[in-house]
Sequence to fold (320 residues):
Amino acid sequence: MEDTMELNEVQESNTVFDDVFRTMLERIPEIMIPLINEIFSTDYPDDEPITQLKNEHFTKSGVTITDCVLGIREKHYHLECQSTPDRTIALRIIEHDMALALQSAKEVELSGGSEHDYEMFFPHSCVIYLRHNEHTKDCARVRIRFQDGTHHCYDIPIIKAQNYTKDELFEKNLLALLPYYFMRYERSLPELCRDEEASRVLLAELLDIRTRLEQAIGEEKGLIYTELISHIQKIDNHIFRKHKEMRKRMEAITMGGQVYKTLTVEILEQGIEQGERLHLLTLIQKKLAKGKSLEQIADELEETVEVIRPLYEQVVQEMN
Fold:
């Protein structure tokens, strides 16, 4: 009975962590750009256009859903967020990546006039571990042996979220990892919550995160602030679920700052269809800030002026 309860708790935790990661990807995908820059040593600007790609694939084990597949310029990026180390993660990653590569396959001429030649492009993949231990490696690897006797090692970098200090998260703009920050204290929670001095240090750290987040984002990016604060609170509430008083004190700090209300947040709260509409609103807001006209925005977004106009006018009204 006790083992069943522990298993249920683990499954519930994984669901909370996965939900937050996928929700961030859906609503504020731009915060993934600094994370991609950190992992793959790229230098994309924060306003680099992003395409969210299909994350459902038919694999040997049936239909599987990947956490994050983004298109930036000519490259595809596949990020998997894991709450704990998984010995089979490399096999699952390469299974997903093969499905993605097959989608990108195009016919080319490789063998002098053959009609059966194709080229595939594998995505840039990585694993983000929210927890790790002393045995967790920095890279997962699959050695692929081909029929001609050659082989290739498929390397998948591993990022350990708890290795980043609070200062590093802000210095590198890795805001996508902020909601998971207090997971590093899970093992010592009973002691931290019993000791008043330790509790005050923890609360001061949360206040510092909220204050620095306000400063880092500013009112013009209110959606990002509101979303991140909401996710920080959701995960903290889960982590501190057995420590009611501490949870209340943390919640008071998290929600005590100014919560910016932007047009896009209001749309989400009203339950209006999200998806492309929310993405268009975000892009329009960015292009307006650069001084572009309605016609220019419609042209760059490859939409008609009639489609863009109502969204454009709503964003203009909100910005004013």
Q: What stands out?
A: The chain is about 50% helix and 15% strand. Confidence is low (pLDDT under 50) at residues 1-11, 258-275. The longest strand covers residues 151-160.
